[in-house]
Amino acid sequence: MHIQDGVLDPAVVLGAGVAAVGAVTYAGWTMRHGHPRLGWALAGAGGVLVAHLLDVPLGAGGVLTGHVIGGTLLALALGPALALVTMSAALAAEALLWGDGGVLALGVNVLVMGVAGVGVGWAVWRRLSVRGDRWRVPAAGLAGFASVLASSLVLWGAYALGAPGMASVALWHHVAWAVLEGAVTALAVALALGWEAHRAHLRDRADALGLGHRHQAVVDGELEALG
Questions:
Q1: How large is the greatest C-alpha to C-alpha distance in the chain, in angstroms?
Q2: Is 72 in contact with 122 (CB distance < 8 Å)?
Q3: Given this model, what pLDDT does residue 227 score?
Q4: Top-level class of domain 10-226
């Protein structure tokens, strides 16, 4: 989904850049009185960089590939504001260090994978996860799926405005990509919940023995793990 420099009309690139700067600035502003999980943010950015390098064949003899974007997972672990800032930093590093996405087109890529991916993934998660604990894994999967579809729509919109003659990737390819994202997101949350259940068991045993413990929030301030 990374758009390179010179593909889109300069006016579209400029407009997307202004919108992306506004979104990231607002996200930073909302965190001004909080205590950002900077350690988790650095780990999340590293995970995004690795995930974006690991292309998975999605059909057509391996010609069409996709990779986990990670916007929903970042939102669940960090909250939507810090997740957007983290994704933007990772995309900037990709563009500057190995040319994966254009430097001038960075704003477009932030809108596609950051604002749309993180925002929609978070919104779907919050909407579905309140139904109860049994919904948390499927909610995460559906959120990951929806985040890629949202990113795809923004990507197509950018092409429609800035490069209307450019052939778009087939719809089924993006649907397959969304399935990949949803599956990985659901698996990650299932593992996190399983790990937390194990930690809770150990914590109960420690409490029974009169041993102290400490914990920290991991996913959306809802999952806890011993620190």
A1: 69
A2: yes
A3: 32
A4: mainly alpha
